[in-house]
Each structure stands twice: as C-alpha cells, then as structure tokens.
Design brief:
Elements lengths: L1 H21 L4 H23 L3 H10 L3 H5 L5 H4 L9 H13 L1 H8 L1 H22 L11 H14 L4 E6 L1 E6 H21 L8 H19 L23 H10 L3 H14 L9 E4 L2 E4 L7 E2 L1
Antiparallel strand pairs: 1-2, 3-4, 4-5
Length: about 300
C-alpha cells in the first residue's frame, strides 16, 4: 500500500507542473498546487496507514540529511523541497502564500522559464546552505521555505518597488521591498534567538538565508534580455486603432479607463473580440499591450 501512496505522491507533485508546462499556463500557480496536492497525499498516507514507519519511509526517500548528501544523495537537495512535515500545516500554508501571491507576479516579470530557474536556485541554495552549515549531521531538512525565500530575494533584487497583494497585517498591496525585508529581518531575529540565545527550534533558518541570498545574487543574470515596458497610461491610447469592429470598446476604454484595473479589463475585452490586422490571428494582452498570438511583432497596441 505504501508503494501505491508513494507513487500517488509523485503524481501529485509532477502532474500540475506537467499540465501547466504543456498548456503554457502559470508555473508559479502550478508549483503552488504541486506543494498543496503533495501535502494532501501525505495526510491521506497518515490517515490510512498511520503516522508510523511507513510514513517515515516516505520521508527517508526524499528528505535531505547533510551526511547523506555528502555521500552522494544529491537528489534530496531538490526532493526535500516537495515534502513537508505532516504535523505542521502552517509551514505549508506559509510557503504557498509566498509562492502564489509573490511568485505569480514575479513570473509575469521573468517569464515561465526564468521563473522556474530562479525557483530552483532558491531551493538548491537553501539545501546547500543547510548542508554546509551542518556537515556530517543526520538531522533531516524538508520543505519549500528555501525556494519561497528565494522568490522574495529575486523579486527584491529585480523590481523592489512593485506592489503585490499580501497578508502583511492587512490584506492589501504592499511594496515587494517591504515584504521581502520584513521576512528577511524576522529570520535574522529568529536565527539570533536560536544561535545566539541557544533556544530550541526545528526551523532551518540557514536554509532560508541560503535561498534568499543565492536567488538575489543570480537574478541579474536571469534578468538580462528582459524588456519590461512601462505601464500604459490612458493618455497614450488613441481612438484610432488597427482593429475592426471594436471602435465602441475603444471608446468605452477612453471613457472608463482611468483606473489601471478597468483599463486592463477593457484591453482584455478588445483583445478577445478583435483579430490581428496582419494575419487575422488571435490576440492577447501582454504587458498591457495587445499583441498577436501568432507573431508578436505583427501588432503592439497601444
């Protein structure tokens, strides 16, 4: 039975990522679902077989121990980021919140491929930092916190003034630099409690630092070649447009597009109703400009 559940756990982890990759959907959202589904399988495992040796056997296959990494179990540097302690749902929730609310806007900045690379850099950076700091230890480490902190580090390096919705005291838009520095500062405080005051903790603070710092340091490399256009203002949008049959929508855009969210909604509506004036292909909204799905150089409006 445990082999079946282990296989189900692997499917739960891989399936959302594979589906998103095939359908060119958000990898950040898929990663959120991957972690969530994997944790649900862990809970099912515990409910059906008990939280005993069989569940422990799952962890021994995928969690990371510095001593084993040094012996060549390098796969655990990655697999440990997809398994969480079954009795700590808040840990899973915390990682998911960061990956979803901060990771998805970062993916819009970086693109799917570079976002995934940055995520893995944070994950591996956290695992390597924990291994180096605990050489020879058999104490296990698991969880996606290194990757989550990597997302914060990468976003802080690339676009610190961006604002994203986040539950920091209140659920509202906060500057990325405030969110990232709050988490990093809080980790410094917690690490000081553990290493300075010798308090007991099961949290791998060193892994958090490793993921944050390595993702921050490598972001300039990933950012090369990315062009991010400034937000389109209503004054840039002329009533003359290259599309047919959407003049009324463009007029509504002018009349009601003072707010960014409303402006984006009308641009999406125009993209859905109109076709490319060059090839008559479908259109989509990318970076607040309507572009051709077939060839982006065909049109960029406004």
């Amino acid at each position: 039975m445990e082999e079946v559940l282990f296989g189900l756990w692997i499917v739960a982890i891989i399936a959302p990522l594979a589906w998103a990759w095939y359908h060119k959907a958000s990898i950040a959202m898929a990663m959120t679902l991957s972690l969530l589904f994997g944790y649900i399988v862990q809970l099912i495992w515990g409910w059906t077989l008990g939280y005993g040796p069989e569940l422990y056997d799952l962890y021994t296959r995928v969690w990371m121990k510095p001593a084993l990494v040094e012996e060549g179990h390098l796969h655990t540097l990655i697999t440990s980021g997809f398994v969480h302690s079954w009795d700590d749902p808040l840990h899973v929730l915390g990682n998911i919140i960061i990956i979803a609310l901060v990771g998805i806007p970062l993916e819009e900045r970086l693109g799917r491929n570079k976002w995934l690379i940055s995520y893995m850099v944070g994950l591996i950076g956290g695992s390597v930092a924990w291994t180096l700091a605990n050489s020879g230890s058999t104490n296990p480490a698991l969880g996606a916190s290194g990757a989550a902190f990597g997302i914060l580090g990468a976003y802080l390096c690339g676009w610190p003034e961006d604002e994203v919705y986040f539950p920091l005291i209140l659920i509202r838009k906060w500057p990325v630099q405030l969110i990232a520095l709050f988490y990093f500062g809080f980790e410094i405080y917690k690490a000081w409690q553990v290493y300075g005051l010798s308090e007991v903790s099961h949290v791998a603070h060193i892994a958090h630092f490793g993921g944050f710092i390595l993702a921050y340091a490598t972001l300039p490399i990933l950012k090369k070649g990315i062009e991010w256009e400034d937000e389109v203002e209503l004054t840039e949008i002329t009533e003359e447009n290259p599309f047919k049959g959407v003049d009324e929508l463009v007029k509504r855009l002018h009349d009601e597009g003072d707010e960014k969210e409303t402006r984006q909604a009308w641009l999406e509506e125009i993209a859905e109703r109109a076709t490319c004036p060059i090839c008559e292909g479908e259109l989509h909204l990318k970076k607040m400009r309507i572009r051709c799905v077939v060839e982006s150089s065909h049109v960029a409006w406004p």
